[in-house]
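User: I'll paste a sequence; please echo it back and then give the predicted structure.

Assistant: Echoing your sequence first, then the prediction.
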Amino acid sequence: MASIANKLFLQTQTPLLLARRFRGKINIQRPRKPHYTRALVEAVTRPIYEQPPQTRETCLMPRKNKVEVPENPYLQIIAKELLNWFNHSKCTGIFHLNSINAEDMFKAKVLFHKQNMHLKVYPKKALALGLSGGKYEEILPLFDAHCAVVFSLDGNPSRMLKITKKVPQLILIGAIAEDRILSKNQFVDYAALPGIDIVRAQLVGVLNSAAGDLVGKMEASQSTIVRMLEAHAKTDK
């Protein structure tokens, strides 16, 4: 009877579910570095353990000589290139780069290129080689994680921020404008400022209004004196 019922009615099969992590396994030996802000929090909250007391034997142990590795010529070329970009860019944005595929990266470069901006990603060794000992050495801690740099030759920060809203993989962590290192909030405030031409026009308007007020006050006092003299002359007659 059971075999006849199995042939007459359809049987439901339970699906086989297999839990998989997105994009394969985690690289335990070389884990990806976290965001710069998270790295700061982890560094501050890291516990400090007492070091074991050093004895005479540990102090007199011979140190191993470090083998000097010659610098890669290709890294030197990249270091000169990125230093040239930093020196000739009027506005530079530093972004934390999250996971992004090649197609989205190409689209982001096209968006920046249309506004005369350039999206670059450099290795950490080249950044350390090019920026060490210069005026941009203080921004090297920002590149501890995987970062990208946007160079604007025209110096238009408002357009840069508008484009980054279309690319969620780019997170602003710092910037350089007019040879000054700015934080994220300072750069956003700097982008909200009007252009230099508008500020000059406002300054000219303020100066003209002050000069007009001064001329009006001087003419008002003179006209008042003239009226008083005319009234005094009429009373004498």
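The chain has nine helices and five strands. The mean pLDDT is 81.
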